[in-house]
Amino acid sequence: MTPKSCNYDAAYGLFFGSLANHNRFSIISVLRDEKKNVTEICESTGFEQTMVSHNLKRLDHCGMVFSEREGKCRYYRVNEKTIKPLLKLIDAHIKKYCCKILTGER
Amino acid sequence: MTPKSCNYDAAYGLFFGSLANHNRFSIISVLRDEKKNVTEICESTGFEQTMVSHNLKRLDHCGMVFSEREGKCRYYRVNEKTIKPLLKLIDAHIKKYCCKILTGER
DNA sequence: AGTACAGATGATTGTTTAGTCATATGACAC
DNA sequence: GTGTCATATGACTAAACAATCATCTGTACT
């Protein structure tokens, strides 16, 4: 499949859907500053291993994290090029609108 | 509620969840370049009015669109400050990763 | 006040998603 | 090869979501 033939719409859905889940967002957050293996992610987040693996798979799938094996462990790191500016942008948005977001006021 | 007391995590979920839905994304897309009222959005997208209203409510709720009444109509426009750079960022990401995203290759 | 147009809301239902359990694979050490 | 640690996968169920339907509110015009 060439990039031109890709179905961009579906890709958008997968991309944003990946960040919409609270647990995946937590995983991204603990990886924000340093790479970690699955066990370390579990410890940092308190999540179960299978759940973390499932969610890492999805994040990897969307190009949000990269991974590499080191001996018995597989280390994951965020795709800094996308994730860092994205989170920065959204942080600013939420700082400004979070109250509206959470209360639903119009 | 002051910004400091906000529950940011929930806000992130609402924010990204809003963009994860294909129909909401279409609505954002047709508003990307010009403001439109609900009827016009329906015409541009082919969606039903009630569905559009429900989804606009959510987008408004997240600070992604703003609205103002003009006579009988209510016009919606995107929050350019957030949406434009966001979409630009994601466009670049997806151009690079969409094939992986859609095929699931590792 | 009555009608018509524009949009919003609430309830219901079918679909999607996500966490959990059981199990499988992969890598290393002995 | 066997055991153990690290991670991945598939199937299943429960919870979340989103579209639809029926109905309601708001504005303008007469």
Can you offer a commentary on this structure?
The structure is a homodimer of 106-residue chains. With 106 residues, chain A is an alpha+beta fold. Chain A has a single domain (3-79), classed as Arc Repressor Mutant, subunit A (Orthogonal Bundle), CATH 1.10.10. Chain A contains five helices and three strands, in the order H-H-E-H-H-E-E-H. The first copy, chain A, has helices spanning 8-20, 22-31, 38-45, 49-61, 80-103; strands at 36-37, 65-70, 73-78. Chain A has a three-stranded antiparallel beta sheet with strand order 1-3-2. In chain A, strand 2 (65-70) and strand 3 form a beta hairpin. The longest helix of chain A has 24 residues, at 80-103. The first copy, chain A, is globular and about 45 Å long. The model of chain A is unreliable at 1-5 (pLDDT under 50). The interface between A and B is large, with 46 and 44 residues.
